[in-house]
User: What shape does this take?
Amino acid sequence: MPPSLRRGWLIATAAMLVLCLFALWQSSLLAMTDRLGPGPGFIPFWLAILGAGFALALLFDTFRTPASTGSDDDSLIPKGDGARRVASVLIALVLVTLTLELLGFQIALFLFSAGLVIALGERRWLVILLFAAGGSFGVYYLFTRWLDVLLPAGRLFG
Amino acid sequence: VDSLNHLLGGLASALSYGNLLYALAGCMLGTLIGLLPGLGPAAGTAILIPLTFSLDPTGAIIMLSAIYYGAMYGGTITSVLINVPGEAASVVTCIDGYQMARQGRAGSALAIAAIGSFVGGTFATIVLVVIAVPLATLAIKFGPAEFFALMVAGLCLVVGLAGRNMLAALLMTVIGLLLAMIGIDPVRGAPRFTFGFEELFDGIGFVPVVMGLFGVGELLLAAEARQARMIDADLKKWNPTPREWRLSSGAIARGSVFGFVLGLIPGVGSIVPTFMAYVVEKRLSKTPERFGNGAIEGVASAETANNAYANAAMVPLLALGIPSSPTIAVLMGAFIINGIQPGPFLFTEQPKLVWTVIASFFVGNALLLILNLPLVGLWAKLLKIPFAYMCAGVLIFCIIGAYGLKQSVFDVWIMLGFGVVGYALRKLDFPLAPAILALILGPMMEKSLRTTLEISGGSFAIFLDRPVALALLAVPVLVLGTLILRPRAFARLRESDAE
Assistant: This one.
């Protein structure tokens, strides 16, 4: 197992162990049994114990697995253009989620579509504008008028 | 005879103008989404759920089922033309399909894939018609103990077949089950793990989680990777030669059987039947050296097995209410969103719906064949859409899907969070399928177990008095026990998985 992959497995498994221990604590606050049988905390409690056990076993197994001695290109962490593209998608998603109800679907998605394709390297402005308009105003019209899906109109514009 | 009558009634309904249109739209959208490298059928089906919000339940399920097998075929086009499998099952198609494209035989490869998919899918649906009702009739006799045992058996098979990642699969199953515990307790009505968020009272949304793990997660991976170049293929000549027909016919017949049989087993995954069918063809061939260098039987066997598997996987879903793969779990989620509980009672409570859906599988398979042969050139052109537009377009659908179900931005955050988690876990090669199956089965498993324990006054000994439940629980115990207690068998599994 390459060192970066091994490190990744250890971190992910440790995070899941913490999650299971947190679930164990939370479920212990719920009733385990009542007069009819098992209470709301019964199954999550035992599941959390089982999960913590599996996580510990996996941590132990990963610790025991030696890291390969060959070159580790650390390919788990994105670099260069790949990292920039991943960051662009994530930032665009965070911004659109933050502004979705404030600006409304049409404006938020127009800015999202245009911003994301520009960030991903597109430079043909007319195509960008047409795509962003279709992806926001067009899609809003399609889903709200034709498919009866409620989408936010935006608090800023009533 | 009764099934045949129901099927004919279903066929009449499936061929109605509206349902035919939904199947057609589903096939086209599915093929389109399957074309997008990196987006598999699970993500594709989940992303397109919002399109069905306004449809009646029958129309919605017909369209989503058509999207599912359309996406399975769409993956073939990218495998042949750009050597990038649109979904896991198409990995095997890349081996010979891409070589055929390099030799100027892309048209033949895609045509045989479409014909094989049609034959495999139709064969699997015919057997589905024959066995679904007897299986459902048997399952109707099940009580909560048997259902709980059946779901445990299904989940354990998924885990047992995770190969070298079995421990990780077990952990992911538990994580999925814990996520399913979020929300109001289904028996007593007490809130659990909601932390004061009203949005969590109904539980964590299945659609945002799937869109995050599969849709956003896969897009982030695709954004990071470099894009592949398409072969400039001549797709006007798609009719296979008589020799190619001869070579493919046996492979199509055998692939149908492999795909169907393995599709019935939860957790097998689409790659196993495609790979097995391919290996068998290579072994049977008098010229095995052609495999890997553009053997049409390689494409025919893999694609036929793939579609037979896809249709066979509907048997445990419709007859038992057990999803056998993440994509089927997405379909099950769509059933539930539309107020339909898949399982044995579906055949008695909603026979018109279920038989219309089954009949639509025949219609959908035929539509895929009719669409894909002449339109393959058009699909190939769509592969030239720049990644920036494809990425933004898919994300728009993800946002609508996550928001549209409950009109909640909270669900969009859930999707985003699970997108990051899915991206990281996919890079680490953590198995995601067990978590998704556990998330959808979790509430039903809990309800069955707690009802069973209420009947028994809290005693687990009730399982000893129920032979079917005991037998069902014994299967996973034996499978997992063998793998844990016989390290050599486990090591062999690790090696075969690594290969």
User: Anything to note?
Assistant: The mean pLDDT of chain A is 89.
